[in-house]
């Protein structure tokens, strides 16, 4: 049991410096929300949130994504509960089910100088399921931020069934 706890703590320490956001693409909009890790090991969505028209130029999409990633940090769960928001309301969505049914999603996270772009598809159990075979890992540097954003948008333009 003690070794499992130690393994979990090692894994949690690896996630400490992870910056993360979630990007949804509907027929008319991109919805970008910041994801925070907590000291109890769960991820939570919070501000900043951006809703951009699908016709928004790549530079503005890039700026929104990196604003979210730069805001992402490890948060104390009690702090999260104090600041708790209804992120569905911020995304202007009535429910997760409708959001998942009407959008495509990918998570983008930066850790250890790597950008990981993980596409998701709607799963049969009402949630989202990772499309592991299409996950993209790229070297990260500030000069590559636009390229990383373009790759995320490219994955959102794919169809996953």
Write the H/E string, N to C: HEEEHEHHHEEEEH
As a percent range, the share of strand residues is: 25-35%
- CATH architectural designation: 3-Layer(aba) Sandwich
Kindly report the name of the CATH homologous superfamily: NMB0488-like
Quickly name the level 1 CATH class: Alpha Beta
**Helical residues, percent:** 25-40%
Number of DSSP E strands:
8
Are there runs of 5+ residues with pLDDT below 50, and where?
1-13
Classify the secondary structure makeup into a structural class. Answer: alpha+beta
> Roughly how many Å apart are the termini?
39 Å
What summary fits the major beta sheet? Answer: 8 strands, mixed
Please tell me the total number of domains.
1
A few lines on this structure:
Helices cover 35% and strands 34% of the residues. The chain is α+β, with helices and mostly antiparallel strands. The chain has a single domain, classed as 3-Layer(aba) Sandwich (NMB0488-like fold), CATH 3.40.1590.
Primary descriptors:
161 residues; globular; NMB0488-like fold; eight-stranded mixed β-sheet; alpha+beta
């Amino acid at each position: 049991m003690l070794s499992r706890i130690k393994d979990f703590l090692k894994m949690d320490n690896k996630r400490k410096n992870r910056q993360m956001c979630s990007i949804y693409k509907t027929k008319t909009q991109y919805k970008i929300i910041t994801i925070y890790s907590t000291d109890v090991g769960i991820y939570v969505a919070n501000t900043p949130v951006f809703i951009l028209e699908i016709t928004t130029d790549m530079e503005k999409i890039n700026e929104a994504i990196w604003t979210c990633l730069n805001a992402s940090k490890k948060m104390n769960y009690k702090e999260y509960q104090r600041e708790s928001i209804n992120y569905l309301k911020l995304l202007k969505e009535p429910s997760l089910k409708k959001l998942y049914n009407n959008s495509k999603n990918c998570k983008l996270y930066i850790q250890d100088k790597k950008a990981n772009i993980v596409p998701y598809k709607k799963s049969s159990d009402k949630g989202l399921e990772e499309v592991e075979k299409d996950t993209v890992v790229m070297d990260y540097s500030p000069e590559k931020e636009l390229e990383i954003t373009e790759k995320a948008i490219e994955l959102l333009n794919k169809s996953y069934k």
